[in-house]
Design a protein that fits this description.
heterodimer; A: 115 residues; mainly beta; six-stranded mixed sheet; five-stranded antiparallel sheet; 0% helix; B: 113 residues
Chain lengths: 115, 113
Amino acid sequence: RKEVEQDPGPFNVPEGATVAFNCTYSNSASQSFFWYRQDCRKEPKLLMSVYSSGNEDGRFTAQLNRASQYISLLIRDSKLSDSATYLCVVNTGLYGSSNTGKLIFGQGTTLQVKP
Amino acid sequence: DTGVSQNPRHKITKRGQNVTFRCDPISEHNRLYWYRQTLGQGPEFLTYFQNEAQLEKSRLLSDRFSAERPKGSFSTLEIQRTEQGDSAMYLCASSLVRDQPQHFGDGTRLSIL
């Protein structure tokens, strides 16, 4: 079983639609969580960090459920420019001298927004 | 540009050749990471440096791979006797502290003929 699992999609949606991506992680010691966005043949770029209380950044809302080990990303009023791959990312265990802060990535979920 | 810089952007080489990639992290970042990404997959961790010390290596990093970070500044990743399976995007990332998001460079895309 992969440490971080995502539905690879692709998700094909019309402009203006609301779309939700889900992600599960296997290590209960995971301490910090992120969504990164990756455009075709480009590097991953941080979209937003994910907090237990949930957080919102404009049209983007991220939620974390530690009990279920589940992370979500909601995109409202989707734009053509939102077309990309969205990577769910986990940093497992921040405490203790042995932790290096390496990131564990999901496979990515591809979103295609159509006019 | 004060972001993470990687070069070359692209490298095409014949199987069996050696290749070396360079990463210049954001100047005040003491934590540097190398990842590898193949088509359709998320990046996978290869190795981590804190300043000049290499503190973790993934099992993905066979003995043909070596990484250095002399003086805790730029880092190099060398692959010896390249194989077809080494074809991938090699990404470098840096951060200032452990729980801060990592910033990625543009990556080096390696193609083995």
